[in-house]
Amino acid sequence: MMEPISVEEFLKRSLTTPVADVRTPAEYDKGHIPGAFLFPLFNDRERAEVGTLYVQQGHTAAVLKGLELTGPRLEEMARRGMEIASGNPGDASGGSLLLYCWRGGMRSASVAWLMEKMGIRCYTLEQGYKAYRNHLLSFFDHLPHPINVLGGLTGSGKTERLHQMAEAGEQVIDLEGLAGHKGSAFGNLGLPPQPTTEHFQNLLFRAFSRMDPARPVWLEDESRNVGKCSLPDGLWDKMQQAEFYLIEASHQERTCRLMKEYAGFDPCLLENAICKIEKRLGFDQCKKALEACRSGDIKTALQICLAYYDKAYNYQLEIRKKSHGIHTFDTI
User: Fold this and answer.
1) CATH 3.40.50 fits 144-331, yes or no
2) Which CATH number fits domain 3-135: 3.40.250.10, 3.20.20.140, 3.30.70.940, 2.20.25.90?
3) Angle CA(167)–CA(172)–CA(176) in degrees, nearest 5?
């Protein structure tokens, strides 16, 4: 018999039991529990149709429409659910399944009923994905992990250093890696589209859940937004109070690193990135950077942008020095 379970129990069981998201593809794409399979009861159009009927004609009309829509594909759904439960495509040998919809209501209950008819033990998420999101935000509001922040001027190699630290056994979460963005106007070059803020936070929650709360977690110094992805308020607030360590690197070293990272891109892409910060660079400096880019002098274009980023970041460093202090990275 289907059993609703708490979000804490659901996440604990998800370590060993497949998770299926029975919401629509659009809901799934906006954000889902990381690792969950998309297993929709309705597509986007069908859900809108059923929802409209519920509002206009009530529960019974909506249920009948839902049965009409899903009836022809119940066999297909049963087979797919059995594959997910077994953990192997093409294998329908039984197992258990964790299911969730938005509020833990009829969609997850209906799919659980179908799957239990096929011999699959089902557990549904009590109060659904909404409960998961509330749990996540509460977690970041009361984050138990000590935080260390690694900062440095643009091109100082912060991300590279964090990866080295992770390989050496430190607890590291790559914010830019999870957000799919390197944090500047050039940050999306060569990368796939970013996740939504909602799903970025879901990925971040999973990453923290895997960390030992008794040991510090290292993060890169970021603004509240990494590209289009926003950090949870609770995490952002804690980062402002965290121990801060600064990597120092020469201007030449940083320029060389940026050249390796960006000089290979189509100049048109670099020009578009420069135009994004025209107001901050100023018209004259922006014009010089664009002209350098068009003439093939990528190094000069990057150095003009670097001067802007250095000025902005040094201002932030001065504020941090006055409020909480800064350690040099070599002192740890």
Assistant:
1) yes
2) 3.40.250.10
3) 110
